Amino acid sequence: MTKRILSGIQPTGNLHLGNYLGAIKNWVALQNDYECLFCVVDLHAITVPQDPIHLIQSTRETVATYLACGISADDASIFPQSMVAEHSELMWILACHTPLGWLNRMTQFKEKAGKQKDQASMGLYAYPVLMAADILLYQATDVPVGEDQKQHLELARDIAGAFNRHYKKDLLTIPEPRIMGAATRVMSLRDGSSKMSKSDVSDASRIHLKDSDDEIIQKIKKARTDSGSFPSDSKELDGRLEVQNLLNIYLALSGVDVQTVYAEFGGRNFSDFKNHLADVCVENIGPIREKIHRLMDEQQYLDSIIQKGTAKAKVLAQDTMRDVKKTVGLCNF
Ligand code: TYM
């Protein structure tokens, strides 16, 4: 069986350190060992209102960000989800095989819809079924994501299993989640109990991949810690969510072993550690930011990557759809 990766990110503004450490950095690490498809999930983005002109530019910028982070367009297929119509087509078929009870369990819908559940779109509710379609359409074996997507991946596995059992054949590959690295859930810099997120009202809560060196340094300096000193071992991390988060970010970006960090900074005050953390962030993010800016000036090049990626993805998507339609008994002359 071909070892194949599918993953994606919503083009909803500036990508941040959570997207990088939870997803893209791991894609880069895995890309040589798998056939890779990385989509920009613009159909997921429209589950909440978007400005059309801004959305299309964000889609290009997300492609530029994948490339700037080190995804190779020679090997991977990079494309917007909406360019391969089979995503929506398979989504409908899967939706007809997904019990409402499974969707009612999805915590992300509850968080995003909030108290205004009746005002939320059907798209927002059905969002995890579209995500399942993204993955199952390509028979992906592995899906590298941050920890917040774990429940959606379990649903994708359940839907594939139910579909296969219903038609008594192993048509859809059951994907494995790949939640990797030291920072699988990067938390807000202002509140260690909430996830770093594009939708947080506070810009200081997250580091964007397009932040200037100075912005990065200021955000790390102002990141919340507590009155204790830097921990000397894992026991001293108990209940210190903000400290754990900064440590995880440092470990993920520097690749340094945790014991070395305890030995170097344990017992010292936080400003020493924060200076090092800011340096590591600037070293990692600075070159990505510069490359995103350069690539955004090369729109034709970005569009050529999109066209090439879309063409490759379509071949695989059409293969699966042919089998699925035949299996379900839909016309496909
Ligand atoms: P999205 O756009 O919210 O996030 C994209 C990726 O970034 C990861 N991520 C994080 N990881 C660690 N810490 C954080 N604070 C953090 N914030 C975001 C996410 O886990 C994700 O890997 N539904 C998905 C997109 C999607 C998808 C797919 C992913 C659509 N179809 C198919 C995989 C396969 C989403 O909204 O991710």
Can you describe what's shown?
With 333 residues, the chain is mainly α. It has 2 domains: 4-178 and 299-328, HUPs (Rossmann fold), CATH 3.40.50; 203-293, Orthogonal Bundle (Tyrosyl-Transfer RNA Synthetase), CATH 1.10.240. It has helices at residues 17-30, 42-45, 52-69, 86-95, 100-104, 107-113, 122-137, 150-167, 213-222, 241-254, 258-265, 270-296, 299-328; strands at residues 4-9, 35-40, 77-80, 142-144, 176-178. The chain has a 3-stranded parallel β-sheet. Strands 4-5 form a two-stranded parallel ribbon. Helix 4 (86-95) packs across helix 7, helix 7 crosses helix 8 (150-167) and helix 10 packs across helix 12 (270-296). The longest helix has 30 residues, at 299-328. The two termini are 28 Å apart. The relative contact order is 0.15. The model has no long low-confidence stretch (mean pLDDT 96). Residues 6-10, 18-19, 21-23, 41, 44, 131, 134-135, 143, 145-146, 148-149, 152, 184-186, 195-196 line the site of tryptophanyl-5'AMP.
Q: Tags for this entry?
A:
333 residues; mainly alpha; Rossmann fold; 3-stranded parallel beta sheet; two-stranded parallel ribbon; 13 helices; 7% strand; binds tryptophanyl-5'AMP
What would you call the structural class? mainly alpha
CATH topology of the largest domain: Rossmann fold
Quick check: average pLDDT?
96
Q: Compute the gyration radius: what is it?
A: 21 Å
Number of helices: 13
H/E element order = EHEHHEHHHHEHEHHHHH
Query: What is the 3D shape?
Result: globular
Instruction: Tally the structural domains.
Output: 2
Neighbour order of strands in the largest sheet: 1-2-3
So, the CATH homologous superfamily of the largest domain? Answer: HUPs
CATH class of the largest domain: Alpha Beta
Regions with little confidence, pLDDT below 50 for 5+ residues: none
Q: Considering DSSP H and I runs of 4 or more, what fraction of the residues is helical?
A: 40-55%
The major sheet is characterized as: 3 strands, parallel
CATH architecture of the largest domain: 3-Layer(aba) Sandwich
Q: Count the beta strands.
A: 5
| Beta-strand residue fraction | 5-15%
How many angstroms separate the termini? 28 Å
Bound molecules: tryptophanyl-5'AMP
